[in-house]
Write a structure and sequence with these properties.
alpha+beta
């Protein structure tokens, strides 16, 4: 048995250090600069459009304990039912709630975008009755000392009659 003081010299190929090529260094520097540039742009313009390199400003400030909480949701009319709540997620309408809420002003400015939500619902829920009218709604809850008080105020933001042919 070998003395612990005597260390075996590792094989030459186990200790070879491979240096990064000039191209490899340049690619890594360019990637780092690009990521920092996007991060800086997101901070300066105060946008979350470049997530996860944006400001994430929705987490930056505390809520007013005596303010309001607003929540967006969808209601649908079908041939046999009025005012059925439709889940706002990618499994039901094809996009996540955050996408709808993040694009809310764009949807309000271009109501025809509601048709894509109806089409998404029809594609993802083919066994359900087709949506004839879709309502983009907002619930507003008042807070006092951080607790919900009173009934929510329900506001219709937009109504869209489907352009899909039923047949």
């Amino acid at each position: 048995m070998e003395s612990p003081r005597k260390q075996r010299r590792p094989e030459a190929d186990q200790t070879d250090v491979r240096r990064l090529s000039a191209t490899g260094v340049a690619v890594r520097i360019a990637g780092t600069v690009a990521a920092l540039g996007v991060l800086a742009y997101g901070q300066v313009t105060d946008t979350n459009d470049l997530f996860p390199l944006g400001t994430l400003s929705q987490f930056a400030t505390a809520r007013d304990l005596n303010g309001t909480v607003r929540s967006t949701y969808l209601l649908a009319d079908t041939a046999t039912e009025d005012g059925r709540r439709i889940a706002m997620n990618d499994r039901t309408i094809g996009v996540a709630r955050a996408e709808v809420e993040g694009q809310l002003q764009r949807i309000l400015d271009n109501p025809e975008l509601m048709q894509s939500l109806i089409d998404g619902y029809a594609a993802l829920k083919p066994n359900r009755e087709p949506v004839q009218t879709l309502y983009l709604m907002r619930s507003v809850q008042r807070l006092e000392d951080g607790y919900v008080v009173g009934e929510p105020e329900e506001v219709e933001l937009l109504r869209w009659d489907s352009t899909t042919e039923v047949g």
